[in-house]
Write a structure and sequence with these properties.
Structural class of chain B: alpha+beta
Largest sheet of chain B: 6 strands, antiparallel
CATH superfamily of the largest domain in chain A: Nucleic acid-binding proteins
Largest interface: A-B, 45 and 53 residues
Mean pLDDT of chain A: 76
Number of strands of chain B: 11
CATH topology of the largest domain in chain A: OB fold (Dihydrolipoamide Acetyltransferase, E2P)
Shape of chain A: elongated
Low-confidence stretches of chain A: 144-155
Oligomer: heterodimer
Radius of gyration of chain A: 22 Å
Strand content of chain B: 5-15%
Number of strands of chain A: 7
Shape of chain B: globular
Number of domains of chain A: 2
Structural class of chain A: alpha+beta
Distance between the termini of chain A: 81 Å
CATH architecture of the largest domain in chain A: Beta Barrel
Low-confidence stretches of chain B: 645-659
Largest sheet of chain A: 5 strands, mixed, barrel
Number of domains of chain B: 4
Strand content of chain A: 25-35%
Distance between the termini of chain B: 59 Å
Radius of gyration of chain B: 27 Å
Helix content of chain A: 25-40%
CATH class of the largest domain in chain A: Mainly Beta
Number of helices of chain A: 4
Chain lengths: 155, 659
């Protein structure tokens, strides 16, 4: 093998690997990413059932209903719109009524959002940024991360 | 008073770092031995001063000095002593101080153990190291000072986030930082070589032990973080492709590539420019990781309350160092003498493929991690790039790389014989097929890809061991002779074997634990039981206990296997009064390499509890494999060649038995 051939082999292999990686990334970006939506987005846009999204907002006080089989139903709001959510599994410790939550799952045909993952705040100071922005967009954001009515009730 | 001492020590360390950043550099440029001589003592003193500051902060935490804002926000007088100490770095300010402490430690180590380095190079390295140290010290003093006083001092602190009150906090961040910051040394060597305009095989030999140490710590740090998340977060997952996890994975991939390319540089005096670039990239990715964790630009489980000014400051540091280093690289790289191009089928060819794959993997992880930021800036759309994305792109790139791993050490330098290498790997191939067939017999052929994964794991493990067996002529000479050959082998070669086998162990754990894990979620009362993983888990009852700074409700489970009690498990719900928060402590019982994992949901008034039980077969192998890899690193580090480390003439190296 001449020096030139060796160099070409090397460049060729590198090119193939890079092209495969780029192809994979592009495919994954079109198919495997999840968009974040607020309840208002869900109300405005009509999404085909089965679309995978992340839904963020506050858990409506008094909406959490638990069933015997470990299932739980609750409602998520951003002040303007409210979406019912169904989830089966163990909720994070910091999940609570009136607190911020991000649920990931599928838009159902009956309007109920079927969540398979529920993320709550990591600590009591921190609120998912998406939720903060969604709440700010609706003008109901307060610095302590609670809805105005709940904040009043808690004090 | 002690806090003020710490504060002054920190300011003094900054001033000294500035001196260390300029004087030896000036001396190296002007060939002034007095200026050059400043570097070593300055580095050691800088470490002592930062150490003093850190000790002062730890002291404030131990005595619960609530006149310090940082202590008030993150500590509580009722907290157990261990968590008072670890709480020092369980927050932004303290963790940055730990970061700088470790940076100064590495500087001092170079000063102490770098006796065989040429003075000029050593001065340049320590000077570059001090550039990094001084910017970070300035960052701490200006935006994240842990020594700010509070007047009047409150009587009690806000306590540390209960999730962090765990032994994991004592181990994970220091290990990870030793890895992250250890990359700064190879970075400093690379910059010094670029400034100097000279680079040779000896350079690779000096850099290798530092890279190896950093890589070993990074491996352990990532594994420890993964295990911590696994047992603490209660989801039974060990890797979430969270931005912060990615931030630690990227430097690891780059450091792994650097380790391998440095071998080519050392043995064949080639790949110089590439190795320099990798050294720069590894530390750049570490800095990027620090930025991502500390700025809060990405939503992550690691994000604490963040402050935008800090983010901008770190971004500025990031731009200066990465931009500066790459500019210097662009200006100077052409001056370095390039090495030759070699045959594709050879040891160096295999190592280049390794580097190609590792860097492409780091690049795709980087793309996936930063893509949400870019997309949001461009279109305003909010997306989450998670496990489905990364699994799809990462696994197809990892598999060919892993398939090639056993071939690498079997190929000779310059010109390898692929056929001979394949023949020597016959046993590994057989073991892989057997393993796949055995798991198909045990678990069925439902998951074909996972059977392939099991085969891959055995291919890696047996492949690594066959290389060792071949070199010591196992079964081909009397056992005594083989043992003598083993004792005579360079430790770095044994280290390679062990580290490569460790990769196989981790792969086996990953494949088996993700494919054949079983899970059960249900509401349980006392007396209820669940059949899982050929074991029977029965809920015995509830009990209340008081911990040091919490109260907990413990749910006791007994695990039976064919009517014998094999384990008692006690997951609990802890409520911490100081922050009025609850945490769930999962219970884990280990059987061989497999684990039973029990996590609790809500406990209702009528004593019913939601229980999530997992059976995770061979899950511990994931972390054990990482420990094995790090062990390989340690063995390699103890190689005489690296301890002597001196630039021996190439003639003598050539006379030594070729590897």
């Amino acid at each position: 093998m001449t020096r030139k051939q060796r160099r070409l082999t090397l460049i060729g292999v590198a090119g193939v690997v890079l092209a495969c990686a780029a192809g994979l990334v592009l495919y994954a970006m079109s198919d495997r990413i999840v968009f974040f939506n607020s309840p208002s987005d869900l109300a405005e846009k009509t999404m085909p059932p089965g679309t995978r999204i992340r839904l963020g907002g506050l858990v409506v006080t008094g909406s959490v209903v638990k069933s015997d089989d470990g299932g739980v139903k609750f409602e998520v709001t951003d002040g303007a719109a409210t979406v019912p959510v169904a989830y089966k599994g163990i909720l994070p410790d910091l999940f609570d009524e009136g607190q911020g939550v991000v649920a990931e799952g599928l838009v159902g045909d009956d309007g109920v959002f079927a969540a398979d993952t529920v993320l709550a705040k990591h600590d009591e100071k921190y609120m998912p940024r998406e939720v903060v922005d969604a709440l700010k967009a609706q003008g109901v954001w307060q610095h302590d991360g609670t809805m105005p009515t709940e904040a009043a009730a808690a004090k | 008073m002690i806090a003020e001492l710490g504060h002054f020590a920190l300011i003094l360390a900054f001033v000294l770092a500035v001196a260390q950043a300029t004087l030896p550099f000036w001396g190296a440029m002007r060939n002034d031995p007095r200026m050059i001589a400043v570097a070593g003592p300055a580095a050691v003193t800088q470490f002592l001063l930062v150490g003093l500051a850190f000790a002062a902060l730890v002291h404030a935490y131990i005595v619960s000095d609530f006149s310090l804002l940082n202590v008030v926000e993150n500590s509580h007088s009722q907290k157990p002593l261990l968590f008072k100490i670890t709480g020092t770095w369980g927050n932004h300010e303290g963790s940055m101080l730990l970061w700088v402490l470790i940076l100064a430690l590495f500087g001092a180590l170079v000063a102490a153990f770098g006796r065989n380095l040429p003075d000029r190079l050593k001065a340049l390295v320590l000077s570059v190291q001090a550039w990094v140290a001084s910017t970070f010290l300035l960052f701490i003093l200006l935006t994240s000072n842990p020594f700010l006083r509070l007047d009047p001092a409150p009587i009690e602190g806000n306590d540390l986030n209960p999730v962090l009150q765990d032994i994991g906090l004592a181990i994970h961040p220091p290990l990870l930082y030793l890895g992250y910051v250890g990359c700064s040394i190879s970075f400093a060597f690379a910059i010094a070589a670029l400034i100097d305009g000279r680079i040779d095989a000896a350079w690779a030999r000096w850099v290798r032990p530092w890279t190896l140490a950093a890589w070993g710590f990074l491996t352990l740090g990532i594994a420890m973080g993964s295990y911590w998340a696994y047992y603490e977060l209660g989801w039974g997952g060990f890797w979430f492709w969270d931005p912060v996890e990615n931030a630690s994975l990227m430097p690891w991939l780059a450091a792994t590539a650097l380790l391998h390319s440095a071998i080519v540089m050392e043995k064949r005096d080639a790949l110089k420019i590439w190795t320099i670039l990798l050294a720069i990239l590894a530390f750049s990715l570490s800095l990027l990781g620090t930025f991502l964790v500390r700025s809060g630009v990405l939503t992550s489980v690691h994000t604490f309350a963040s402050d935008p000014t800090r983010g901008i400051f770190i971004l500025a540091i990031l731009c200066i160092f990465i931009g500066g280093a790459l500019t210097l690289f662009a200006l100077r790289a052409s001056r370095l003498a390039p090495g030759g191009v070699f045959a594709p089928i050879s040891r160096e060819g295999a190592l280049i493929l390794n580097n190609l794959f590792l860097t492409v993997m780091a690049a795709v992880v980087l793309t996936g991690t930063l893509y949400p930021l870019v997309l949001e800036a461009l279109t305003g759309a909010r997306i989450s790039v998670g496990a489905p994305f990364f699994n799809l792109i990462f696994i197809p790139l990892a598999v060919p790389l892993l398939l090639m791993v056993p071939f690498g050490p079997m190929l000779a330098w310059k010109r390898g014989d692929l056929r001979a290498a394949s023949e020597r790997l016959f046993a590994a191939f057989g073991a892989a097929i057997l393993a796949a067939m055995a798991s198909a017999w045990l678990a069925g052929t439902e998951h074909i890809l996972s059977l392939f994964g099991v085969a891959l794991a055995f291919w890696l493990i047996v492949g690594a061991l066959s290389e060792l067996a071949f070199r010591i002529k196992l079964f081909r000479t009397p056992p005594g002779d083989s043992l003598r050959r083993l004792a005579g082998m360079p430790r770095s070669a044994i280290g390679t074997t062990i580290a490569h086998a460790g990769v196989g162990v981790t792969v086996l754990g990953l494949v088996v634990a993700t494919t054949w894990a079983t899970e059960d979620i249900r509401s349980m009362k006392a007396g209820d039981g669940v059949e899982i993983g050929s074991r029977y888990v029965q809920l015995d009852g509830f009990l209340q206990r008081d911990g040091a700074n919490y109260k907990e409700t413990v749910v006791r489970f007994t695990v039976y296997r064919t009517s014998d009690v094999v384990a008692v498990m006690e997951p609990s719900k802890r409520s911490f009064a100081a922050r009025q928060t609850t945490t769930t402590e999962a219970a884990i019982a280990t059987f061989g390499f497999s684990q039973l994992y029990v996590s609790l949901g809500d406990i209702t008034a009528d004593s019913t509890v939601t229980v999530r039980i997992y059976w995770k077969p061979l899950v511990t192998l994931i972390w054990l494999g990482a420990v094995v890899m790090a062990l390989g690193g340690v063995l390699s580090l103890s190689d005489r060649r690296l301890r002597v480390g001196a630039p021996r003439p190439a003639r003598r190296a050539a006379a030594a038995p070729a590897e």
